[in-house]
Structure formats: C-alpha cells, structure tokens
Amino acid sequence: MTGTHHHREERLRRQAEAELRARPPLPPWQKRVVERFAVERPAGWYTLLNQFAPHTPENRPDVVLAGPRGVLAVLLREEDPGWEDARAAFVWTAELLAGVPTPHGLLTEAALRTVVVRPAGSATGHSGEHLTVAEDDLDRILLRGEEVLERADALSAARQLSSRTFDLTPIGWNPQRIPEPRAAGETGVSGRSSGLFDVDELREQRFERALEGPMPDWRIFLDDTQLGLVRRRYSGPARITGPAGTGKTVLALHRLAYLARRSSGELLYTTHLSTLPRIAEKQFRSLARQVGHRVRFQHLHGWAKEFLAARGRDSEADDRQIEEAFLAAWQRAGQGGPLAAARPSRGYWKDEIDRVIKGRGLRSLEAYKTAPRRGRGGNLTPGFRAHVWEFYCEYERELGERGVSDHNDILLRALTELGRTPLERPFTAVVVDEVQDLTLIGLRLAHAISGDGPNQLLLVGDGQQQVYAGGWRLSEAGIALGGRGEILRRNYRNRTAIVDEAGELDAVNRFDDLDGGPTVALRSALPVLGGGRAVRWRGPDQEEALLSALRRLDDTADAAVLTRTNNAAEHWENVLRAAGFQVSPLDRWDGTPSPAIHVGTVHRAKGTEFRSVFLPDEPRIATNHREEQEASQRQQLVAITRARDFVWTGFVESD
Ligand SMILES: Nc1ncnc2c1ncn2[C@@H]1O[C@H](COP(=O)(O)OP(=O)(O)OP(=O)(O)O)[C@@H](O)[C@H]1O
Q: Which InterPro entries does the entry mention (predicted)?
C-alpha cells in the first residue's frame, strides 16, 4: 500500500467517523463496517446510511451501497433475518431505484442484491434470496464478483437514492459536490442531481451512444418502454408485441423476476417450442439467480403431460406411432381422393387437422363447416369440408386402433381436466412466449392455467413471425385484453443491414391483425446498432460457397446454419462435419455460447439469435397458393432476423 493511498484512506475514515459522530451512535462493529464502506469511495462505492440505524425497521436496509458491483441493500444484523424482512428490504430499495437514468439506460433491479452483514465469526453463506457475510469478510462483496456498473452509473444510482428519500444519508460523499460524470462522447448533460431530467434528451443521448459503443447489458439496463412494462400493473391479461429483436423476451424475463420478488408461489414461462424454455431459463438465471427456483420454464406440451400424469391420466404421445397412423389414414382415405386432387401435399392436410380441426377443438362436421380457417387458404366449401372431416375420422380411427393420442389430444385432455378440477396451487403469473404459433386449444389451455387475475397472464409474440396459421382471435379463447396491449419498437438485436435485408420481405402479419390492434412491421422498428452485412450468393456450388464463407468469418463462434426442413439440417450437419467444423444441433442447445456451428431448422431457432446466420437454398416445391407463399416469407423473416451482424443467403443457380 502506498503512503498516499494510506493517507487518503485515513482521511476518508476520519471524515466518516466525524459524520457518524453527529448522529445516534452505532454499535462498534456496525460503525467499523460503515467506515470500511466509506473508505471504498475511491474504488467507486457510494455509501448511504439509514437515518434510523441502529434502530432501522426490520424490513429496511441499514445501509445502501452503490458501486461497481451493483447496488447492495445491506442489513447489519446480529442474527440472520427472516426471508420476508430481507425481501422487503430489497423491494423497498428497488422501488427507490426504479428507472434511475444512467448513461447506459434505465437501471433495473437486477443491479440490486440483498446482503446481510453479521459480526465477525458468524455463520455466512447464501440463504434464500440473500447473501450473508461476516464483518471481517467484506472484501467478498466489495472486491469480488462481476462488475456491472460503471462509475457514472453507480453515482447516478446513489444520487437518486439520496434525493428520493430522507431515510438514506450519504456518508463520506456529497451528492451536491461531485461533478456530474460524463460518459464517453457525451456533451453537456448536467444539473440533474435532483433526479429531474429531460426524458427526450436523455433518450436521444442514450440512443446515439448505443450506436457508438458496446451494447449495454440487458440484465442491468432497459429502455423506458421496456422498464415501464416490466413494472406496470395489469388488471387482467396483457399482451406485448413488437417486431423481431425488440426485447420482448427480455422484458418478459424481467417481469417474471419483478413479480417473483413481490409475490409468493410459482410462476410459469411457457411456449409451444421445446427449445426456447431451456434457453430462457438460462437467461433468467443470469438475470435473477436468487428467484430462479420460483419460475418454472416448460413448454406447453411438457406442462400438459406432467399435469395429466400427476392426475393419473393418460399423457403419452408417441411421434412415430402418430406418423404411422397419419400415413395409414392418408393411404386409405387421402391420396387418390378429393383431398389429394385439391392439394397433393399430405402435410397440408396434416396441418388442417392439427391447426384447424383438433387445434380449434372442433367436435363435429357441423362446427367444422363454419369454422374460420384464417391463413390456411384453399377456401374450402362446406361440401368439401365433409371430405376433410371423413379423412380426419379415418386418422382418429387409426390412432384409436394403435391406442395412441397425438399432441393435440394431450392439450385438449389437460384443458378438460383443468375445467373439471382447477389447479390446487394456481400460478402467480404465466408468460406465454411466441404466442402467435399456439393453436386455439393451446391458447385456451394457457388461459385456463393462468386465470384472469391482475398480472396473471402475459402474452408475448409477433404476428410477422408466425410460422403456423392459427387463425384465432384472443376473444375465441375467452381472453379480453381491454386495451392492455403494448408495442416495443427498438430493435436491439439486428444491425441495420440485417433489418434492411429482412425488410425486403413482404411478410404479412397474421396475428396482430386478428384482434384489430395496431400492427408493427419489422421495418418500422428502429435498429439500435448500425452496420452489419448481408450477402446474397448465387451460383451452382452452394456447399463450397457456404463453407468458404464460413471459413472467411474472422470468428466462427456464434454462427448458425438454418434450414427449412429436418432433412436439410441433417445434410448440412454432415457437410460441415466432413469439412472439419465442429457442429452443434440446435434442438439440444441451451443458449451457452460455443465454438461449434449451430445447425437446425428455422423452427428450432425461433426466439434465439446468433452473430452470423447462413441460410442455404433448399429444393422447394413451387407453390401458387398465396398463404403458402406468405408462410414461406414469414419463415424467411424469422430466419434472417436471427442474425445480429451477418447474414448469408444462398440461391442455387445452375450454369
Ligand atoms: N434494453 C436492452 N439493452 C440491450 N440489449 C437488449 C435490450 N433489450 C433487448 N436486448 C437484446 O436484444 C436482443 C433481442 O432481445 P429479445 O430476444 O428479447 O427480443 P424479442 O423481441 O423476443 O425477439 P424475437 O421476437 O425475434 O424472438 C437480445 O440480444 C437482448 O439481449
């Protein structure tokens, strides 16, 4: 330790001592702790002492610290407090911190942790949502752990805390005297020590900065719309829409953490995709590890299966047998008949059963004759629908003979079971991500799981990214939004060149328009990051071209090859492996960065993102059907918008 350093420490200690002398005395060990905090000022820690200490109410922090490792709500206690008090201290501090404008965005409560400090020699460790350390181990919170705030952010937080309440008094620093710190490239932002600020000006400056520097950490900083929606109280079901990359999932995860900390019971994040819950769970743990155990991440079919099994009901669906049943039905009643004559693709008729007949839970030909089939095309007359119904009955018979259920049966059975006997312990809140691709029955099930209470159901989606025509209105699922619909408009993922590339697609929004709400196209969202690169390759030897484009990447980490079909994914896995690349199939990925090239279908990639995305051309059956062309465009839009910096699209052309 240098002499000057020692001298400065001593000066800060004496200053803190003098300030502490002017107030009710603290027990000696607490005094030592506060002095130690104050001495860390040059390292960027700002100390605020509760004016009631040492008689602070049990559910309030004795000290709040803002510094490089975040904001700490510190409880100085002889004994470990109960979780309710520790949690209440967190929430009290979080409410004061809410939306502190910093040079990097609005501060979220993910920057905040609860720490209990006990006298030297006490038992320590993690308990529930807080960390306990002993007086002689303060280095653990002050010097170790991830740095999440820059000095300017920490100072903004400390100033806000001191200006928003008389309960917290600065120790060892003066909020009025420290000059307003400026972030790189910022000019003339000053005079905001009172916490007052010009929102528009700030928003603009943040936006400009974002274009220059690295992206702020989404866990710690959000934009104003996002943060507003994290904290909004909804009196019933609500919906968040917005084009790709606008932070819908990020917002949903923050909201789950926010609600978890202000409630008891379990929360659920669900979607129809099996891959996304795993990735979202991982992100959530990095955002709010302390409440990780309170939120269940599970795809809807998985939830339904588990629920039915717990109720002693049949819950198995065997994909191979389902496929066999369908093929048998197609051979007997499909191919060679009126269905194949109208549309030769058997996949189309499988979708008709999955999305319309069973997806809507239709029980009779009469109901099917008048059922809406939005986005499915074909304009089937009631007479023709009788043929489809016959085919469907054949499929059901085949399933029955094999004694198997398909995935729609499972959802419907779970819905019926819930209607019979509701959940013993309802979820506190349910988030449904990628809602645009749910069937009507799936949506009804999600609604039945959540209920209509305040903050209980949040639907997150984007109609432009719809891959399956669902053709429902929320009202058909009994969901009334009552104006609780919000739109995000700032694209944090895709650089400008990527947005421009995807913007050329004419992807019809098949979801938002169903409820008559406003629709937002990808192009009308503002990319926060400029630059990027989009390459369209044309030629005969696509494999060679794609491999050499991959080799030209300065860093292959975080690259993906996305395909339309499983067969194509398998093909590219083999091609890449043969060329010496490490390959990681998308269906097993949990979002952990890896040097391997991810390969999988666009469907599997929904909700994810990569630095570079490769979209090889695939043989496709040409179609004149408008809805198939539209669906294909929407799929391409999903594919392109998985790319952050670079997208490569192949078009095979023979010589
Ligand atoms: N406020 C923010 N600051 C910095 N990064 C952000 C912010 N909000 C979102 N991001 C980042 O933007 C990217 C897209 O976020 P997210 O996946 O939540 O978007 P989305 O709207 O759900 O996209 P999609 O509809 O395509 O699945 C992620 O990399 C996320 O970390």
A: DNA_helicase_UvrD/REP, P-loop_NTPase, UvrD-like_ATP-bd
User: For residue 131, what are its two tokens?
Assistant: 């960390």
Q: Is 242 among the annotated ligand-binding positions? A: yes
Q: Which atom of ligand 1 is nearest the CA belonging to 641?
A: 26
Task: Report whether 376 contacts 469 (CB < 8 A).
Answer: yes
DSSP secondary structure letters along 291-349: GGGGEEE--HHHHHHHHHHHTT------HHHHHHHHHHHIIIIITTSHHHHH---HHHH
Q: Is there a domain that residue 202 lies in?
A: no
Distance 526 CA to ligand 1 centre (A): 13
641 located within any domain: yes
- No. of helices (H) and no. of strands (E), the chain: 22, 24
Domain that holds residue 551: 532-652
Q: Do 577 and 625 fall within a single domain?
A: yes
User: Does the beta carbon of 247 lie inside 6 Å of ligand 1?
Assistant: yes
Q: Give the rounded percent of residues in the chain with a pLDDT score beyond 90.
A: 67
How many structural domains comprise the chain?
A: 4
- State if residue 466 touches ligand 1 by the CB under 6 angstroms criterion: no
In a domain, 453, yes or no: yes
pLDDT tens digits for range 403-446: 999 999 999 999 999 999 999 999 999 999 999 889 999 999 99
Do residue 559 and residue 473 come from a single domain? Answer: no
Is 249 touching ligand 1 by the criterion CB < 6 Å? yes
Within 13 Å, how many C-alpha atoms sit on residue 239's CB side? 25
- Return the CATH number at 432: 3.40.50.300
The ipTM is: 0.99
Q: Which residues of 207-218 are buried (b: 16+ CB within 10 A; e: fewer)?
A: eebbeeeeebbb
Check whether residue 479 and residue 614 sit in a common domain. no
Would you say the pTM of this structure is higher than 0.80?
yes
Structural tokens at position 190:
């000053």
In this predicted structure, which of 34-48, 86-100, 356-370, 519-533 has the lowest mean pLDDT? 519-533
Of 389, 641, 392, 623, the C-alpha closest to 505 is 641
Ligand 1 touching residue 433 (CB < 6 A)? no
Say yes or no: 39 and 57 in one domain: yes
Establish if 185 belongs to a structural domain: no
Residue 47 Rama label (left phi>0; alpha psi -120 to 50; beta): beta
Which helix H or strand E contains 458, and what residues bound it?
Answer: strand 457-461
Give the Å distance between the CA of 493 and the centre of ligand 1. Answer: 6
Comparing CA positions, the residue from 230, 588, 635 lying closest to residue 431 is 230
Q: Mark whether 108 and 70 lie in a shared domain.
A: yes
Q: Is 243 annotated as a binding residue?
A: yes
